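Quick one before lunch.
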Amino acid sequence: MTDEIRVFIDSESQILIARQQARLLAAELGFWSVEQSFIAMAISEVALNILQYAGKGEILLDKAQKEGAQGIMVVARDEGPGIPDVELAMQEGYSTSGSAGLGLAGAKRLMDEFNVVSEVGKGTTVTMKKWVR
Ligand SMILES: Nc1ncnc2c1ncn2[C@@H]1O[C@H](COP(=O)(O)OP(=O)(O)OP(=O)(O)O)[C@@H](O)[C@H]1O
Ligand SMILES: [Mg+2]
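Model of the adenosine-5'-triphosphate complex:
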């Protein structure tokens, strides 16, 4: 059984819904309030990237498990232009839009596991996990 929640991302109001849903799931899993906020902040960054670079996409939320640890998994995916050099894009300060370029680097810091798979012309999938301590 999966408790997967899907939120279609095509506007800022949908980002708010993804954040709210993530906080609810995180609370249910036992994350304390500040950590719920960290998860919501990480979601804002990857979801804003979806809006900004791909136009639309989706956020998937689910429970995660490893060796007795419980956590949350957040997947942000789109079928946008993709990222030519993921390693470069994840560096703090790297931006193709003249922004601060803290989005991916910041989201990575807020979560425990962070993985980006992207193919130019096909899209981008960011998978993030955080474990309950
Ligand atoms: N979903 C995506 N699709 C295509 N390119 C992306 C996507 N997400 C990030 N990128 C690329 O990676 C770069 C770095 O992303 P990041 O979120 O770290 O910074 P930013 O969006 O440029 O600035 P900030 O998030 O600080 O406003 C972006 O400038 C963009 O080129
Ligand atoms: Mg960004």
